[in-house]
Amino acid sequence: MPNLRLADLGAEITANVRAALAEDIGSGDITAQLIPAERLARAKIITREAATICGTAWVDEVFRQLDPRVQVTWNVADGERAMQDQTLFSLEGPARALLSGERSALNFLQLLSGVATRCREYADLVEGTAVQLLDTRKTLPGLRLAQKYAVTCGGCHNHRIGLYDAFLIKENHIAACGGIAQAVASARQIAPGRPVEVEVENLEELQQALDAGADIIMLDELDHDDMRTAVTLNAGRAKLEASGGVNQTTLRAIAETGVDYISIGTLTKDVKAVDLSMRLSL
């Protein structure tokens, strides 16, 4: 499946920010009202740890929606690595807007940079192999596209976006359809041209998926020897995706079996936000 591009996310970013500001500010930031409306301020945002950056467009949109007079000046771009204590961007404008937007802006930046940072760590582990690391649907509700974009900023790739853009036929689907061949045939009739992926748990099911003409076959929890055998049996007929039992210690070995993809839920589902700080000067 193609990777998300920032150019495709304009409406999504606007909606993400509108929801975040409504959640945080509600009827008004009563604490910011302690500061005179005409007071101007400057601020700089630093990262307290090394990180791969993502989320600049969400930060820009926060301050655009709050007060277009705020000037945002970036020292980094999405996908770039930042060092500990590096200034990521600076702000200049009405103090109330800077303070009201701080939390929402940093929430987006720290989360998405956390995803990008995790992905960069994993991508570096398989550098030099031909494998592509894929995300999953294990994302925060309402922020799936944002997190999947962050995955690409860290050097990994997008799997299907949702339940609508590709088939992923699993054990229960197979049982309900009466077999792998029947499930694949039905998928071709329902949505011709959509990718059809089948999850298999052993080499016998792999052969059935190959015979049925699946585009992608997910090898679920197969050991490394069986993965290598699967690559040989496949002989390039379908794309092979490894899933399950993937972590930083097993990742390289799985990549070296020759599979095309490795899908990893942890790229998005349990990410640690990057530690950021805003320093304001009036």
Explain the overall architecture.
- This protein has helices at residues 10-25, 56-66, 95-125, 144-153, 171-177, 180-190, 203-212, 224-234, 251-255; strands at 40-47, 51-52, 71-74, 81-82, 87-94, 132-134, 167-169, 196-200, 216-220, 239-243, 261-263, 276-281.
- It is of the alpha/beta class.
- It folds into two domains: 6-122 and 271-281, Quinolinate phosphoribosyl transferase, N-terminal domain (Aldehyde Oxidoreductase, domain 3, Alpha-Beta Complex), CATH 3.90.1170; 157-263, Alpha-Beta Barrel (TIM Barrel), CATH 3.20.20.
- The strands form three sheets. A six-stranded parallel β-sheet has the order 6-11-10-9-8-7.
- Strand 9, helix 8 and strand 10 form a beta-alpha-beta unit.
- Helix 2 (56-66) packs antiparallel against helix 3 (95-125) and helix 3 packs across helix 4.
- The chain starts with 9 loop residues before the first helix and ends with a strand.
- Keywords: Glycosyltransferase, Pyridine nucleotide biosynthesis, Transferase.
- One of its GO terms (molecular function) is nicotinate-nucleotide diphosphorylase (carboxylating) activity.
- It is an enzyme of class 2 (transferase).
